[in-house]
Amino acid sequence: MKLQYIIPGPMHKTSVGMEEVNRRLAKLQGWASAETEVTISTVSSGPASIESMYEEYLSVPGTAKNIIKAESEGHDATIVGCFGDPGLDGLREVSDKLVVGPAGASMGTAVTLGQKFSVVTVTDSIINGLEKLAWETGVYQKLQSVRAINLPVMEINKNHDLAVELLIKEGKKAIDKDKAEVLILGCMSMGFLDVADKMMEELGVPVINPSKVSLKFAEALVSSNLEHSKKGYMKPPKMENNKRIEDLFIK
Amino acid sequence: MKLQYIIPGPMHKTSVGMEEVNRRLAKLQGWASAETEVTISTVSSGPASIESMYEEYLSVPGTAKNIIKAESEGHDATIVGCFGDPGLDGLREVSDKLVVGPAGASMGTAVTLGQKFSVVTVTDSIINGLEKLAWETGVYQKLQSVRAINLPVMEINKNHDLAVELLIKEGKKAIDKDKAEVLILGCMSMGFLDVADKMMEELGVPVINPSKVSLKFAEALVSSNLEHSKKGYMKPPKMENNKRIEDLFIK
Amino acid sequence: MKLQYIIPGPMHKTSVGMEEVNRRLAKLQGWASAETEVTISTVSSGPASIESMYEEYLSVPGTAKNIIKAESEGHDATIVGCFGDPGLDGLREVSDKLVVGPAGASMGTAVTLGQKFSVVTVTDSIINGLEKLAWETGVYQKLQSVRAINLPVMEINKNHDLAVELLIKEGKKAIDKDKAEVLILGCMSMGFLDVADKMMEELGVPVINPSKVSLKFAEALVSSNLEHSKKGYMKPPKMENNKRIEDLFIK
Amino acid sequence: MKLQYIIPGPMHKTSVGMEEVNRRLAKLQGWASAETEVTISTVSSGPASIESMYEEYLSVPGTAKNIIKAESEGHDATIVGCFGDPGLDGLREVSDKLVVGPAGASMGTAVTLGQKFSVVTVTDSIINGLEKLAWETGVYQKLQSVRAINLPVMEINKNHDLAVELLIKEGKKAIDKDKAEVLILGCMSMGFLDVADKMMEELGVPVINPSKVSLKFAEALVSSNLEHSKKGYMKPPKMENNKRIEDLFIK
Amino acid sequence: MKLQYIIPGPMHKTSVGMEEVNRRLAKLQGWASAETEVTISTVSSGPASIESMYEEYLSVPGTAKNIIKAESEGHDATIVGCFGDPGLDGLREVSDKLVVGPAGASMGTAVTLGQKFSVVTVTDSIINGLEKLAWETGVYQKLQSVRAINLPVMEINKNHDLAVELLIKEGKKAIDKDKAEVLILGCMSMGFLDVADKMMEELGVPVINPSKVSLKFAEALVSSNLEHSKKGYMKPPKMENNKRIEDLFIK
Amino acid sequence: MKLQYIIPGPMHKTSVGMEEVNRRLAKLQGWASAETEVTISTVSSGPASIESMYEEYLSVPGTAKNIIKAESEGHDATIVGCFGDPGLDGLREVSDKLVVGPAGASMGTAVTLGQKFSVVTVTDSIINGLEKLAWETGVYQKLQSVRAINLPVMEINKNHDLAVELLIKEGKKAIDKDKAEVLILGCMSMGFLDVADKMMEELGVPVINPSKVSLKFAEALVSSNLEHSKKGYMKPPKMENNKRIEDLFIK
């Protein structure tokens, strides 16, 4: 099985650079089953990180390009490497293979582990967006709260200790005040911090690492021969008759 | 009051061309109050028309550019001229003035006129997207159905009679089978067809023309001194400290 | 366009008297578009003010009488001047023209401006009633809370400063504790206090003045050629065959 | 125990007259437990029957008067004898003793007997009203449908056979098409037709007679020492300090 | 009428013994109408008390046995004497007569007395289970909270004063913080403490005693000729053709 | 990783016998990853198959016994091999390791693949039970329908061709009439029929095989270091202080 993990922004051009990209690939490959080959790609132009809905939308065309390339190279599925699942419905319309969103995978998992879950994410600016995602995923009924540590994504990548401390603090509030029984880390950068196990130990509830879970979820789907529904995410009418994605955009 | 109506695609480069753009402006100005000045703009590069979520996302960056330009020219509000309200939350994050989405305005109106409403739209490919919009607008409870006439947008612009015939047919089904008491035309091109009054006469229920209603709704909001909530659509953290929208995108 | 604003009680017989009635008319006419003529009427017998569901019901027959008179005098729409929208469904059944309820208009507007709204109203005794209204309007999903300042309506009319102070205090709680992004003033007397703009400045979120917004909303509907659905609010069977409203009541 | 059943209209002045009033009292007394005394009253002025929300509102002041009189005469509870529970929240505000609404009692019972229920009522004109009642009663989740036989109330009282035939026909549709497992007769006149047992036999599901069930429900509540919550239905502020209900209405 | 109250565990073998069983029977008979004969039975093998879902499941086979015996002895209905309504749907499948669950009866009653209710129960370990019951009963919409006094069932039976004190304390929180207007005692042992009236006096809201209310509810249903829907709780296919319940279990 | 698949009934004593048990084990081992060891067990006494809620409850004590044995033998997780997830919450309370329910796993997966799903199951008698499961799993919002082929479980095991034919027929109705975009096979015996791929080909939507997906889901959870929440499924209070599960049951 061959999976692509797409970072939906030009991380390679940011201060954390290719080093961080490669660190993430190593993590992913380490989590993968023996029979899985993981590749990673970044989007050539796009948002440095995603902390708003507007940045989500900016990331979509570049991600689509990478998905189509990955498919042509024989990948079985791609993972959109941002917890906002930016543009997931649109990306699924234009793809021919499974596209996995980490929030969807994490929430679909969380609801099977407890009656109530919360998400702990980066900044207040994306709380409404994540609540919308819970509805889109169909699990809004069990979402107790989305809480933010209010530390920007780039800061998380640089200051791990502070991030971990704040995550445990907000996670505790989600459990005590909001009655969460399961927590989800609401940001992919959090997923590469090795913080979930530490939080589970401190807090006594399952903590879902979206980076790892979306990979394992993708493996489970591919090996179950499952893809997203083409009836639920229809090919854009203008792409029928073998038109290409480029034909949707008039320059 | 000065309002901009943005067509979120390069309609001027399509077969219907500037003539259709200007026809729409004339309609809008005709609907407006005496004290309102309406301007129209098209996005320079983008989707020819919007019949999928992917095309919605493609339209966002161009629309944002036009909104910011309109604000700098003293507009009080802009209307995103596609019934999918493409990227509305993101556009509201980056704008300083009111941004109106036609679906939001139409649905917010429909719920005050009856207990149950339906939307009649273009193609099956956007039904899921419009259901999501009803949830985002907060009125999902009253949405009975979204029905499609399955005629592409460009076809509607060319074959008015067929469009009207199909709209009446699907509208009737929405009333008889889905118990709709109010109908919404789910496409801005439908809004410029002069079909709503005809449908009301034939079907005996209110039929909301989103093109007209979003204009009147924008006028009502501006004259009530109301804008969208900056607490609900927060400025992207990276735009604080007077950073510009261009700073969100790394080329 | 000719609009009637009906005060659903004999305010002219209370201590605030015709002076307050006329002050409200002046406000309304001031808010109206140039092409709109506003008239005002009070119900001859009824509740002094409305702070309970029972008083709502008491107001309905008198309001119906005024609506029918207004229609016979050529009004295009009437606004029921109480935020409880008292008897709105019944009034719409017996009317031939648009009847607007301020809560419906305000809530239909609020949901288009943010993801979550709260209402700040007069007394605890009508909180359940307003929650029911949010459901009837179809927007219960977005209602975060109804909070009361617990100052009776007549007191609000006499002690503006205290009312404003309490409104800001409860509004702040709605934002901080209940996560409201938009506020609605849940009482028409509050709407004539000129408090909304002050609250917006202090609190940083849109504050909907129901008195003003219901007027602008009515103008928008009438100029869009929209009325409430006669399929949703059916003529009482006993009024078919040109029977009159009086025939519904056996003395 | 002493219970009053109030017919919220001047049935004694209609063509069915006191004979029907007395027939209903006999039925009620026959259904009651040995220790229960049932009285009946009609409202002196009001709607002949109730087939619209407007007629519901017309019935409220007269019903309130009868409730207060019944309380002064030592009744333990009153039943509002219309399935629309007209003005129930308002009536509960002004009463000192339990007030039972038949729809509430029937729906509260229905949900304990099956997972899905439907109501079969008189005319299409009150379907929206009954759906609202299901929400107010808190059981909207299990309501599958409200179906109407479209026979006016007075006709039901005169043409029993036709009513029974139509009830079985619509009841069958509710079971087969809407998946109802329990049916409720949505009109008090239906409750005095002796039709429920016949329908149960024909249709094989529980059929709730609201006239009988609201009586038995009232008995169960009174003997359990339960009344409606005065915190949920607060005394109108103007009635504090021993003010009377008459003080709410300015003539 | 003949009703059986089944204690779904071998209480007679616990420290409170047959004395408590008989005390409960006396209470029940005291609450019953003159025409009702109440019998009581305990399950021969099963959980000592029920404070978890697992213990609920353990109680089901024994309860089923008692139900079938009671039916053969001419009982009109049985009450499952645990507030968790353990196995209610399954028990209804295999029974030929009405089976009443106390939580269902109490919740079906609570929603008719106020707009919002809470349950005060024994231990945190069954809160999720009771929330599920509210959904099954169809009244989840009005459930404000389930609060636990965290005193085990056997302790409640021994230390009445402490139980009452804790119930009043948690009940007050449910009213003040969760806005409950009606309370339900969420445990049958609480129902035999004579605490409901005391709580009503202290707290000013209706407090439902499930032990008493399920009895009165059963009486009301039987005298209304109502049973649970055999369409909603179908006979297990393997029991068709007069197969017996024993045939479902292979030893 | 070591996983146990428990058949919650004595299949080895039925007509399909150990041969079918072993066939299922071979299937499961074939689906598993290279690093996974699968074991299978049957419950010694219990229901022959599960087609009712009552049979679900009968299966719980035996399943619990097998789970505890499996844990003592070093299994990392167990799968309850019935699509009703019988007793899942109770089983999770008494277990120390992950317990997976196939319905939960299948539904948690389905919601990530499309906006709307349906379940096709064996008999009408368990439709209500499966709807409850969708709510417990938190995904009720996306459940379009549960449809039954009305072929008993034992028949499915014997007459594969008929089962497949009926599954395709009902699946098609779920897609066409109920708008399902994803289907789930609602019975574990269906999962061992090799029918999912055939249905996908015929119907053009993802079809979830619960037998395979629950295995892959369990693998994904175990390799992600995730278990069900012990805060959501609390240890029964009587099992604290190292009491054993046997102590919950008084013989």
Textual characterization of the structure:
By secondary structure, the first copy, chain A, is α/β, with parallel strands linked by helices. Chain A folds into two domains: 2-101 and 213-248, 3-Layer(aba) Sandwich (Rossmann fold), CATH 3.40.50; 104-210, Rossmann fold (3-Layer(aba) Sandwich). Chain A is built from ten helices and ten strands. Chain A has helices spanning 17-31, 53-72, 88-94, 102-110, 127-137, 153-158, 160-176, 188-191, 196-203, 210-223, and strands spanning 2-7, 37-42, 46-47, 77-80, 98-100, 117-121, 143-148, 182-186, 207-208, 249-250. In chain A, the strands form two sheets. Chain A has a four-stranded parallel beta sheet with strand order 2-1-4-5, with helices on both faces. In chain A, strands 7-6-8-9 form a four-stranded parallel beta sheet, sandwiched between helices. In chain A, strand 4 (77-80), helix 3 and strand 5 form a beta-alpha-beta unit. The first copy, chain A, is globular and about 55 Å long. Chains in contact: A-B, A-F, B-C, C-D, D-E, E-F. Chains D and E meet through helix 4, helix 5, helix 9 and helix 10 of D and helix 4, helix 5, helix 9 and helix 10 of E.
